[in-house]
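hi! just following up on the protien thing from before. the input was this:
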Amino acid sequence: MKPDIKFDGNPSRTLLLTLAGGGLLLLVALVTYLLLPELKRYGVARDTLMLHQGSLPEGQQLGSQLDQLRTEVETLRRTIHGDMAQRPAKQLGSHIIESLQNLSWKNRMQLTSLVPRTGSRIDVFQELIFDIELSGSYMDFYRWNRELNDQLGFVVISAFDMRPVRTQNDDTRIDIKLTIVAYKAES
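and the predicted 3d structure came back as:
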Protein backbone atom coordinates (compact mmCIF):
# COMPACT_ATOMS: atom_id res chain seq x y z
CA MET A 1 0.00 0.00 0.00
CA LYS A 2 1.10 3.41 -0.89
CA PRO A 3 0.68 6.33 1.42
CA ASP A 4 -1.59 9.09 0.34
CA ILE A 5 0.67 12.05 -0.20
CA LYS A 6 -0.63 14.95 -2.05
CA PHE A 7 1.85 17.12 -3.74
CA ASP A 8 0.94 20.73 -4.37
CA GLY A 9 2.51 21.59 -7.60
CA ASN A 10 2.39 25.30 -6.86
CA PRO A 11 6.03 26.36 -6.76
CA SER A 12 5.25 29.91 -5.70
CA ARG A 13 4.20 28.91 -2.19
CA THR A 14 7.36 26.82 -1.61
CA LEU A 15 9.53 29.55 -2.99
CA LEU A 16 7.79 32.10 -0.79
CA LEU A 17 8.34 30.00 2.37
CA THR A 18 11.98 29.39 1.45
CA LEU A 19 12.60 33.10 0.91
CA ALA A 20 10.81 33.98 4.16
CA GLY A 21 12.93 31.44 6.09
CA GLY A 22 16.15 32.70 4.49
CA GLY A 23 15.19 36.30 5.19
CA LEU A 24 14.45 35.44 8.80
CA LEU A 25 17.86 33.74 9.15
CA LEU A 26 19.55 36.76 7.56
CA LEU A 27 17.71 39.10 9.94
CA VAL A 28 18.74 37.02 12.98
CA ALA A 29 22.37 36.98 11.79
CA LEU A 30 22.38 40.77 11.25
CA VAL A 31 20.88 41.44 14.67
CA THR A 32 23.26 39.00 16.39
CA TYR A 33 26.50 40.07 14.72
CA LEU A 34 25.94 43.75 13.98
CA LEU A 35 23.29 45.28 16.20
CA LEU A 36 23.82 43.50 19.57
CA PRO A 37 27.57 44.29 19.86
CA GLU A 38 26.87 47.95 19.12
CA LEU A 39 24.11 48.02 21.74
CA LYS A 40 26.50 46.50 24.30
CA ARG A 41 29.20 49.03 23.41
CA TYR A 42 26.66 51.85 23.75
CA GLY A 43 25.62 50.56 27.19
CA VAL A 44 29.23 50.41 28.40
CA ALA A 45 29.89 53.94 27.09
CA ARG A 46 26.74 55.23 28.79
CA ASP A 47 27.69 53.59 32.11
CA THR A 48 31.23 55.00 31.88
CA LEU A 49 29.89 58.49 31.20
CA MET A 50 27.52 58.29 34.16
CA LEU A 51 30.36 57.07 36.37
CA HIS A 52 32.61 59.94 35.32
CA GLN A 53 29.88 62.52 35.75
CA GLY A 54 29.15 61.22 39.23
CA SER A 55 32.82 61.16 40.29
CA LEU A 56 33.93 64.53 38.95
CA PRO A 57 34.04 67.13 41.69
CA GLU A 58 32.36 70.44 41.31
CA GLY A 59 34.49 73.50 40.54
CA GLN A 60 34.56 74.65 44.15
CA GLN A 61 35.50 71.20 45.42
CA LEU A 62 38.28 71.00 42.84
CA GLY A 63 39.66 74.34 44.04
CA SER A 64 39.68 73.21 47.67
CA GLN A 65 41.37 69.94 46.69
CA LEU A 66 44.06 71.90 44.84
CA ASP A 67 44.60 74.12 47.88
CA GLN A 68 44.88 71.05 50.11
CA LEU A 69 47.43 69.45 47.76
CA ARG A 70 49.47 72.67 47.64
CA THR A 71 49.51 72.73 51.45
CA GLU A 72 50.67 69.10 51.56
CA VAL A 73 53.45 69.82 49.04
CA GLU A 74 54.62 72.81 51.10
CA THR A 75 54.55 70.70 54.27
CA LEU A 76 56.64 68.00 52.60
CA ARG A 77 59.08 70.60 51.26
CA ARG A 78 59.45 72.04 54.76
CA THR A 79 59.89 68.56 56.24
CA ILE A 80 62.69 67.77 53.80
CA HIS A 81 64.44 71.14 53.60
CA GLY A 82 63.21 73.10 56.62
CA ASP A 83 63.75 76.84 56.17
CA MET A 84 66.64 76.16 53.82
CA ALA A 85 64.57 75.35 50.72
CA GLN A 86 64.13 78.86 49.33
CA ARG A 87 67.38 80.43 50.51
CA PRO A 88 70.22 81.28 48.14
CA ALA A 89 73.50 79.45 48.78
CA LYS A 90 75.20 82.61 50.09
CA GLN A 91 72.57 83.12 52.81
CA LEU A 92 72.27 79.47 53.73
CA GLY A 93 75.43 79.28 55.85
CA SER A 94 74.49 82.31 57.94
CA HIS A 95 70.93 81.02 58.30
CA ILE A 96 72.17 77.69 59.66
CA ILE A 97 74.56 79.41 62.08
CA GLU A 98 71.76 81.67 63.32
CA SER A 99 69.38 78.70 63.70
CA LEU A 100 71.96 76.69 65.65
CA GLN A 101 72.58 79.62 68.00
CA ASN A 102 68.84 80.15 68.56
CA LEU A 103 68.34 76.43 69.21
CA SER A 104 71.16 76.48 71.75
CA TRP A 105 69.68 79.44 73.62
CA LYS A 106 66.19 77.97 73.55
CA ASN A 107 67.32 74.59 74.91
CA ARG A 108 69.83 75.92 77.48
CA MET A 109 72.80 74.51 75.60
CA GLN A 110 76.05 76.44 75.48
CA LEU A 111 77.37 76.69 71.93
CA THR A 112 81.11 76.90 72.51
CA SER A 113 82.35 76.51 68.94
CA LEU A 114 80.89 76.59 65.45
CA VAL A 115 83.15 76.22 62.42
CA PRO A 116 81.58 76.14 58.95
CA ARG A 117 83.32 74.27 56.13
CA THR A 118 82.51 73.70 52.49
CA GLY A 119 81.96 70.08 51.61
CA SER A 120 82.05 68.29 48.32
CA ARG A 121 79.47 68.23 45.58
CA ILE A 122 77.41 65.04 45.40
CA ASP A 123 75.35 64.75 42.22
CA VAL A 124 73.19 67.90 42.31
CA PHE A 125 73.75 68.66 46.00
CA GLN A 126 76.36 70.86 47.65
CA GLU A 127 77.42 69.86 51.16
CA LEU A 128 77.65 72.45 53.92
CA ILE A 129 79.60 71.08 56.90
CA PHE A 130 79.55 72.53 60.43
CA ASP A 131 81.83 71.42 63.25
CA ILE A 132 79.98 72.19 66.48
CA GLU A 133 80.90 72.00 70.16
CA LEU A 134 78.12 72.16 72.75
CA SER A 135 77.87 71.86 76.49
CA GLY A 136 74.78 71.13 78.56
CA SER A 137 72.67 68.38 80.10
CA TYR A 138 71.69 65.26 78.22
CA MET A 139 67.96 66.10 78.19
CA ASP A 140 68.68 69.61 76.89
CA PHE A 141 70.81 68.09 74.14
CA TYR A 142 68.06 65.61 73.32
CA ARG A 143 65.55 68.48 72.84
CA TRP A 144 68.16 70.46 70.88
CA ASN A 145 68.73 67.52 68.53
CA ARG A 146 65.01 66.89 67.97
CA GLU A 147 64.33 70.56 67.25
CA LEU A 148 67.33 70.70 64.93
CA ASN A 149 65.57 68.40 62.47
CA ASP A 150 62.28 70.25 62.89
CA GLN A 151 63.82 73.64 62.20
CA LEU A 152 66.47 72.93 59.58
CA GLY A 153 64.91 69.94 57.87
CA PHE A 154 67.10 67.16 56.60
CA VAL A 155 70.53 67.45 58.19
CA VAL A 156 72.93 64.60 58.90
CA ILE A 157 75.07 64.22 61.99
CA SER A 158 78.15 62.65 60.41
CA ALA A 159 80.40 62.59 63.50
CA PHE A 160 79.52 62.52 67.18
CA ASP A 161 81.47 62.57 70.44
CA MET A 162 79.96 62.97 73.92
CA ARG A 163 81.92 63.19 77.19
CA PRO A 164 80.57 63.65 80.72
CA VAL A 165 81.97 66.56 82.73
CA ARG A 166 81.60 66.85 86.52
CA THR A 167 80.91 70.28 87.92
CA GLN A 168 81.33 71.66 91.45
CA ASN A 169 77.62 71.24 92.19
CA ASP A 170 77.89 67.54 91.33
CA ASP A 171 75.75 68.35 88.31
CA THR A 172 76.77 66.11 85.44
CA ARG A 173 77.01 67.97 82.19
CA ILE A 174 78.21 66.73 78.87
CA ASP A 175 80.56 68.17 76.28
CA ILE A 176 79.45 67.30 72.78
CA LYS A 177 81.33 67.53 69.51
CA LEU A 178 79.23 67.16 66.38
CA THR A 179 79.77 67.41 62.68
CA ILE A 180 76.54 68.36 60.95
CA VAL A 181 76.11 68.17 57.19
CA ALA A 182 73.36 70.07 55.38
CA TYR A 183 72.63 69.67 51.69
CA LYS A 184 71.59 72.37 49.25
CA ALA A 185 70.25 71.42 45.83
CA GLU A 186 72.19 73.24 43.12
CA SER A 187 70.24 74.20 40.03
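The first helix runs from residue 11 to 55.
The chain has a mean pLDDT of 82.
cheers
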